[in-house]
């Protein structure tokens, strides 16, 4: 790769995160080296901001974070842009989710994710053991952790600023039925749907995705799209990968992601693929 970007955007799940939901110390050190040499390194994830810290090594730092598939951007822990789902849309979608008995987590800004107590029984039932074979281990572990420690079970919706909905089902048939219902509802009220696995779907504000978040972060730093590289692995990365100047797919990505990429890593997320890719492409810079 002769192209040397100034800005590098890295997805988390399936990219810098392995299937145990961990970022290796090697990736942290590589990011540190690149930033020392004047490169800008960003995270662009479907996860909310508060989910990131437990998964990264101590001292992990980047120049900025695009979270919730473009719904918000953070620099030094401070919000530099954000969008919010309107409360009436939130309430309507929860009612529809209840009709489908689909697992959901609502992410308010600045506080714990919410699931209503009246939905607790069927939500917990979706995470019963054993893990369905087709569910990714990292997604399953995240749901187990959410049920155990991270969801605030509430009698009613609290707050008025929300970054996203996350929905999950243990069977593809269940989540696909829910996706169809959301697509029908989109004909009445516009919003964005994002998918990062065969068992989930997320809802954000209309016309918001990772690409819009990347562009807003670039604007904040005065950087150009011509200077950008991004690495990702799933459908919610597609807008970002199509936007940037140089797109890289993970070896563990589906073929449909690899087909639109300019390059593919030689190693998977479980083999420190991002570390090895950046080391090989920037060897003369960081050595």
TrEMBL record:
One of its GO terms (molecular function) is magnesium ion binding. The keyword DNA-binding does not apply. InterPro entries: Cof, HAD-like_sf, HAD-SF_hydro_IIB, HAD_sf. The keyword Transcription regulation does not apply. Keywords: Hydrolase. It comes from the Bacteria. GO terms for cellular component: cytosol. PANTHER family: 5-AMINO-6-(5-PHOSPHO-D-RIBITYLAMINO)URACIL PHOSPHATASE YCSE (PTHR10000:SF55), PHOSPHOSERINE PHOSPHATASE (PTHR10000). This is Haloacid dehalogenase-like hydrolase. It comes from Neobacillus bataviensis LMG 21833. The lineage of its organism: Bacteria, Bacillati, Bacillota, Bacilli, Bacillales.
